[in-house]
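Please decode residue identities from the backbone states below.
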């Protein structure tokens, strides 16, 4: 593979995802190498640096894609701790692996999208040569949610970890920026939710719905801005899209959420962010083999941190008078 290659997108490749285009033979060769190149700033589209958060970008005729493998400084540009195989790995041992997932990357492939890059696929690439390790799903977070996700590497470890989540013993802490100002400053959200397969959303369950499930979490206000609020949310249950759904039901949709949209004219609905402002910040659980209590924290990604700084500046400019 050449160290510096550029391709102009032709009709045959138009509409293809950037990461899939890069993973083809003669380019980055595999999904893991494509993800690693994106994470290290080695990919450009029309002379603009791409990243893992833009991996799903659809290419158009005439786009120019550059893969610059020996870009100066790119060998040390991976997130800390160093990204391996395109992943920010916080912990790895014979039983489990903890990954700080970037927004824009699936945790596991969706039905019908088995070729789409995901943490699970990258881990399969990583452990392909191991006889005693294989990535197994314990829990997941949404594609456009950033932060901590846990995989087991043996079946006994998976069973033990899934049982912990079933008993609700792990601590799962999220940061969420929501529209408006929830009141009071702390409390518990409890709902009965039912998954809508067609709309791909959680809805309030109808009485007697056999598919209904409890959804529960605690919230606490961290910061109030002019039209938005930063919340710390501690999950008790782990329903799909739970935080997004429960905040939406209370009139406080997550900033940037395109599925659980705020109503037009709601406070904060004009704040722009390219994804739901949700970050899985902290994860605490018991190691399945040693019984050691493990604690992990993922720093806020740059896009989320920049958004909060912009909102703080806005609040200061308005004299700090935040409702």
């Amino acid at each position: 593979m050449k160290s510096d290659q550029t391709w102009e997108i032709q009709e045959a490749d138009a509409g293809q995802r950037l990461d899939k285009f890069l993973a083809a033979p003669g380019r980055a060769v595999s999904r893991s190498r494509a993800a690693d190149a994106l994470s290290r700033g080695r990919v450009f589209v029309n002379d603009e640096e791409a990243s893992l958060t833009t991996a799903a970008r659809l290419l158009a005729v005439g786009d120019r894609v550059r893969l610059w493998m020996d870009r100066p400084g790119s060998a040390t540009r991976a997130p800390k701790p160093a990204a391996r195989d395109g992943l920010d790995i916080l912990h790895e041992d014979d039983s489990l692996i903890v990954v700080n997932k970037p927004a824009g990357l699936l945790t596991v492939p969706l039905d019908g999208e088995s070729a789409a890059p995901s943490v699970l696929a990258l881990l399969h690439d990583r452990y392909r040569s191991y006889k005693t390790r294989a990535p197994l799903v314990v829990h997941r977070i949404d594609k456009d949610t950033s932060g901590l996700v846990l995989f087991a590497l043996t079946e006994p470890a998976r069973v033990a970890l899934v049982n912990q989540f079933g008993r609700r013993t792990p601590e799962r802490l999220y940061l969420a920026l929501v529209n408006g100002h929830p009141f009071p400053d702390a409390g518990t959200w409890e709902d009965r939710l039912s998954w809508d397969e067609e709309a791909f959303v959680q809805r309030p369950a109808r009485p007697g719905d056999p598919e209904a499930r409890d959804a529960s979490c605690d919230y606490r206000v961290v910061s109030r801005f002019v039209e938005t609020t930063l919340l710390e949310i501690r999950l008790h249950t782990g329903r799909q899209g739970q935080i997004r759904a429960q905040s939406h039901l209370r009139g406080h949709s997550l900033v940037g959420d395109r599925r659980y949209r705020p109503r037009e004219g709601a406070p904060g609905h004009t704040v722009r962010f390219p994804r739901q402002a949700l970050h899985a910040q902290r994860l605490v659980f018991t190691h399945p083999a040693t019984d050691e209590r493990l604690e992990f924290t993922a720093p806020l990604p740059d896009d989320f941190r920049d958004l909060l700084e912009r909102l703080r500046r806005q609040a200061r400019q308005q004299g700090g008078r935040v409702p």
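Observation: Residues 4-76 form a domain with the Structural Genomics Hypothetical 15.5 Kd Protein In mrcA-pckA Intergenic Region; Chain A fold (CATH 3.10.290.10).
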